[in-house]
Amino acid sequence: MLIEPIFIYILLVTIFFLSAVLIIVVWTQISAFKKFSEIKRETEQLRGSLIEKEADVLCSARRKGKQIIVSALKKATAIEADARVNQKQFKKLLNEELNRVMHRYSLRLEENSQKAFVFYQKSLEENMDKNIKILNDNAEDFKKALLSSLEKEIKEQKEEKLKRLSEEIFKVLQEASGEVLNRSLSLSNHEDLVLEALEKAQKSHGL
Amino acid sequence: MDYNVFTKNEVDLLLAEIEDLERNKFCPGRRLAFSPELSRLAQGQGLASVKKALAELVVLDLTVAVKLSPAFLAKIGRWLREEINQKVILDIKVDPSIIAGAIVSYGGKYRDLSAGRGLEEWFTRESTRIQTLINEDR
């Protein structure tokens, strides 16, 4: 078989073109890989530096915190000691002041109570004298009024009891009369009285 | 009919006897004998007529102070039948508080003719004088 020379030529050109393209692709990939490797290395370096910085920051923060706590504890101890001292002093001062005030007031109270006692004694004596006088004046009137009232009350009670007694005697008398009358009558008397009652009833048109 | 019964109690007894006789009329071991009074009343007429006549009797209530004798009750019963009504019978009640005399109630009329009432009236009338006497005695 015979191949046209034009085809051979086209084949050669195509092969050449494809080889050129392949070379370009390979070179591009190689250069891209190089760039990637470089970026990766830079990233690793950056991460390492960041970790170091972070560790430094933490370390310094811990140190500073420790310093703050230590200083705060020292201050607190100092304040507590001061407070104890102040409390003792305050207590002492308070006691002294209280004692002073109490002493002052007790003196004043004693003075006032003495005055009041004198005044009260005087007023009581005056009142007692006055009351004794009034009582003496009124005693006689009261005695008279009481006697009069008692006499009236006794009289009323006496009258009431006598009235009640009279009523009771009256009642007893009435009952006793009836009973005596009943017993004093014989059966024959009773029968006569019954007959008499019937006759009376018949005569007065009661039947 | 000649009734020889004068009190409600006697009439009640006779009526009870008639009831008893009528109830046992057909019983084999029935009562045959009447009381003498019922026998007398039933002579010549049936029990039904006696029963009817007894039921027609009129009651006069008489309250007395003591229990009266049957003879006296018969006496006043007869007297009442002559003077007031042929069919009257007595319903006697004994109440010692009336002392003596009687309280009569008949045909819707009431008369208190007892000594108790008389005594009470006398005491009411004479109460002032009695009270004065009581007080004088004291």
Question: Could you characterize the architecture of this molecule?
Answer:
The complex is a heterodimer of chains A (207) and B (138). Chain A is mostly helical. Chain A has helices at residues 5-184, 187-203. Chain A has one domain (18-178). In chain B, 22% of the residues are buried. Classes of the chains: A mainly alpha (207), B alpha+beta (138).
Report the C-alpha radius of gyration of chain B, rounded: 22 Å
* Topology, number of strands of chain A: 0
Percentage of residues assigned to helices of chain B: 40-55%
| Proportion of beta-strand residues of chain A | under 5%
The count of helical stretches of chain A stands at: 2
Which regions of chain A contain 5 or more consecutive residues with pLDDT less than 50?
none
Keywords (chain A): Coiled coil, Membrane, Transmembrane, Transmembrane helix
Coiled coil (chain A): 95-175
Transmembrane segments (chain A): 6-27
Subcellular location (chain B): Membrane
Note the main attributes of this structure.
heterodimer; A: 207 residues; mainly alpha; 95% helix; 0% strand; elongated; B: 138 residues; alpha+beta; four-stranded mixed sheet
Would you spell out the secondary-structure blueprint of this structure?
The complex is a heterodimer of chains A (207) and B (138).
Chain A: H1 5-184, H2 187-203
Chain B: H1 8-23, H2 36-42, H3 47-55, E1 58-64, H4 70-83, E2 88-94, E3 101-106, E4 109-114, H5 115-125, H6 127-137
